[in-house]
Structures
1.
Amino acid sequence: MVTLKAGLTLTAALVKRRQKTILGPIDLALAASGFTIVLGPNGAGKTTLLKVLHGIERLSAGSVTWPITEPLVRQQQAFVFQSPIMLRRSVWANLAYPLQLLGRPRAEIAQKVDDWAGRIGLETALNRQAPRLSAGEKQKLTLARALIRQPQTLFLDEPCANLDGRSTREIETLLRNAFDNGTRIIMATHDLGQARRLATDVVFLLNGQLQDQGLAPRIFNAPGTPQSQAFFAGEIVE
Amino acid sequence: MNDIWAGLEAAFWLIVTLNTDLLEITLRSLQVSLTALVIASLIALPLGTWLAIRRFRYRRATIAGLNALMGLPPVVVGLIVYLLLSRSGPLGVLGLLFTPTAMIIAQVIIITPLIASITHQAIRELWADYHDLLISLNTTKKQRIMTLIWDARRTLLTASLAGFGRAIGEVGAIMIVGGNIDHATRVLTTAIALETSKGDFALALGLGFVLIALALAVNFTIHALSRTERDSTW
């Protein structure tokens, strides 16, 4: 369910690297809840947009505002990167790490790690070294590691890229459960089918510019710009 | 070839008879080199980590300087430490010249750049892998450093062992600052140099084999204790 109250807001946001504009300037307001899918071809600025919203990418100009005070932003948000970043530790230690950073009691950590390991089907692999898992297992582990802190907002940068159908379905199930439990999700993807399955609202980027934004049914059925019409019709847009 | 067999035989008898002189200089070698290793590691591991994750103005020049210091000639280090600790030197009042402490100081100076440089390289690569995750998780600087050191611990162990190897086999600097005094500052390497100069090649070779065995034993022991190369670990 998408509410109209703005949760994350970008105002004239601009990201430049070595004089090259990567993103913007764009104005964007995202609702405080929902499952937002960020779509666009390679180089559209999807990853940069997610990192700006998460607060780990500096703006060259403009501003980003969160519904919570800035020091708490990253504590109440989590990010799943396109290439899973595995700590060189066991599966158990990877799941426990975010909770250890917060200084949670050992019993609580153990209980939550066991719970999440069961949810992602790695309960028998807790002592295995995480970097030695398969691609699908790694991505499920990074997702569980992100969700174990129960973040208010979860960012995902093409989490199912390079995964087979079965792993993609498992990831999507985890994401739906998190969304149903109240987690705000903002996810970049190339996969139009996945976008149609998951999105409550859509942001469409092209060459660092916001081309279209709106609720999923409107965007998929009646794209608002020629570029988004071409993209959703399956044409190659640049 | 005869000298090598004689050396092996000498080493065998020195060990099986538990030669007291051999025991003494072996223990002194271990004491000096392990103490130098601990002190150098305490300096070099945080220094290398700090250089890997911290950005500052002369960072590249500092790293280049550190790498260059890996090639410090031990004899020159010995000479400088000698001049500092000699009676007329600025630290002469401490009376450390020709003591094991002077030898430890020289070895710390020699091996610290080596350990710091390998640490920097290992942590830099790990930091490149972990950067986005650790920033995303809102970690403090202390948490980042602890995470990086812990996850790179086996590479850092290798760095420390490289430092130990250089320290235990070092002869130039400790000969100058230690003086190779019998029952005071004589260690395996200086004893080998002395026996070679006396022409007792068999004993010198025997001591050499003991030195090699000692270095291997320390390496194997540390690897065994740190459980490296096991299937489930790094």
2.
Amino acid sequence: MTVEEILAALEEKFGAKREMQDKWGVTAIVSASYLHNVVQFIKDETGIKFDMLVDIAGIDYLTYPNHEGPRYAVAYAFKSMKNPGARIRLKVLVSEEDLKVPTISDLYANANWYEREVYDLSQGLPCPEAPVALDERLPASAVGTAP
Amino acid sequence: MIVLDPNGEKLNLMPLNVGPSHPATHGCLRFMAAMDGETIVASVEEIGYLHRGFEKMVERGTWQQVVPYTDRLNYCSAIMNNIAFCRAVENMFQVEIPERCKVLRVIVNELSRINDHFVCVAAAFQDLGGTTPFMYAFNPREEIMCIWEKLTGARLTNSFARIGGLSRDSYAGFEQDVLAALNSTEKALKDLHACLDRNRIFLDRTVGIGKISAEKAISYGWTGPCLRASGVASDLRKDEPYYDYETYDWEVVVGTQGDCNDRLQVRLAEIEESVKIVRQALKRLTPGPVDLVDPRIRVPSHKLAYQDMEGLIGRFKSVYEGIRVPEGEYYCGSECANGELGFTIISDGSGHPYRIKVRRSLLHSMNSSKAVSWLTPWPCFRVSTLLLENLTDERTYYWRCPICLEQSFEVRPSGAAD
């Protein structure tokens, strides 16, 4: 199974869409409600097992020229240890009205810190529901989201 | 401090605050450890004492102005970081850099790796109580630092790579200097092995300490020598080859135990492999251009700018407006000294990056310290994630101690309200 085939499977199973902005790799746009299932699928059920979460990036499109669609996005990068060189990215679009992205910290041990980094540092994106109470992410003196 | 362990047994532990240490020392972080004798039973780590805002700062400048910031991601192998960034942007342009540039980048990459590994190994021994390895490792390192000085004008946070080339070609006598540094490196390796391999104190403090299994290391996102020490032969130079790394004769070094000793020995063995690569690369170093001749990517040389109208326009535009990287989103990772250094790049097609997110290789090892430090002595942490500059862009995170119930062991930031 190639990465392209996995993308096709994601399109079929989870209604994912290819992110055309990624002209150099494979990125699938998935809905937040399916994120956990999609990640579980690419981690365990595909031929290429994407067993390493490489990075999570929070993106704010506020000043992006001619941007259409939700203001925020959270981009996940995965790679496979079993099939060296295989990589895939997932992207969840997040609107200001519904600032919630499910956590994947039960699937990858390093997800928690990254999710909290998205929350704390990514340009005010109050996002993934990392399984810690809100007050533990930032010092007790911090109020609201990161500047 | 009386606490209950996960099985409900009472333990009498001593809370110990370690750090925050000064940024100039390795590891600007703070630990709150629960000690049973000399053993850490639980720890709460706090990072982010040097939040520099790399990701936000680079949005303000042009693409080329990102390069000096990347040096600071790991000052022990600064040039390697700017090469990783330039490679990502060059991939977005889908251009091939000239052959001489490729070979020079391989040479400085591997010399940086040697430098970085030497610092890591030497400082780890320092922490374990032995100062001699420091002297052995820093002799060849000094020679490499002198090469950096001649090459870039700076010793520490030096920039050499540029998008589409290098800041300048190598100097006369570069090859001889590199060869001399390689010879000293090999001598230092012999000395280090003689000093450490059968050193009872050292082995007692590293063998079987801080073990992590391959599965766990992968799940924690470990890359680089720390992951390879756990027996996973993962190296981007082989898996996703660039700069013709696949054509050089070298091996990926893997460990078997995944303990502190393996992580150090893998680094020492990787120095040997890097020496092999540099020796081969020196033979491939033939005269030729180091920069792309394309004013849309690489700023035209002064010579061109003064004699040619197009060159002048190109220079003016790329300095004032910045090069225009194709619009899109891209993730590109390179094998740096401590693992995969990746950049998620969002370009809106203008002369400035819209957003750059850095994937720091060491954040992952740091993250897993609660898994590794469970019932292990202190030095294991130093060995696994010695250089924490990569961490310094992070904000403080707090962990509640996994072992302590009823918040009996809670870390609070200094100055925070109770």
